[in-house]
Design goal:
By secondary structure, the chain is α+β, with helices and mostly antiparallel strands. It has helices at about 5-15, 65-80, 90-95, 95-110, and strands at about 25-30, 35-40, 45-50, 80-85.
Length: about 120
C-alpha cells in the first residue's frame, strides 16, 4: 500500500468512526516552513503523521528523514500542537484509529475540564 494509500485508508477509518469533524488533510501548520501534517484538526491543534516505509528503510527510517521528522514534530509541539505518529502496520491493524480516537477524546476531556484516565504503565 502506498503512503498516500495508507493515509487514504486511515482517513476512511476515521470517517467511518465519525471522527472527521474538522479534519483537514495536508495542513500547513508552520508560518515559515513548508511543513504539513498528513491529517490535522487545526481548531484543536491536533495532528496525525502517517509514517510509511518504516520496515523497508523508507524516508522516515533513514537518518536524515528521522532528523527532519524530529525537527518538524518538535517545532509543532513548541507551537502547541499535539501530534501522534503512526506506522503502516498500525493503520492496517486498527491501532492508528484507536490512537487518533484517544487523542481526540483527550482533547475533548481537556476542554471540559475532565481528567483523562491514567495510563496503566507508569514511567
Amino acid at each position: 500500500m502506498s503512503r498516500s494509500g495508507l493515509e487514504a485508508s486511515l482517513v476512511n477509518q476515521i470517517q467511518k468512526a465519525g471522527l472527521d469533524d474538522g479534519l483537514v488533510l495536508e495542513f500547513r501548520f508552520h508560518p515559515e516552513r513548508r511543513w504539513r501534517f498528513d491529517l490535522a484538526w487545526p481548531e484543536l491543534k491536533l495532528a496525525c503523521e502517517v509514517h510509511g516505509g518504516v520496515f523497508t528503510r523508507g524516508r522516515h527510517s533513514r537518518p536524515k528523514g528521522m532528523l527532519n521528522d524530529m525537527e518538524k514534530t518538535s517545532e509543532a509541539c513548541i507551537m502547541g500542537w499535539r501530534v501522534v505518529l503512526v506506522s503502516s502496520l498500525e493503520v492496517r491493524n486498527g491501532q492508528a484509529l484507536d490512537r487518533v480516537r484517544r487523542l481526540l477524546e483527550s482533547s475533548q476531556s481537556e476542554a471540559e475540564g475532565i481528567e483523562p484516565p491514567a495510563s496503566e504503565e507508569s514511567v
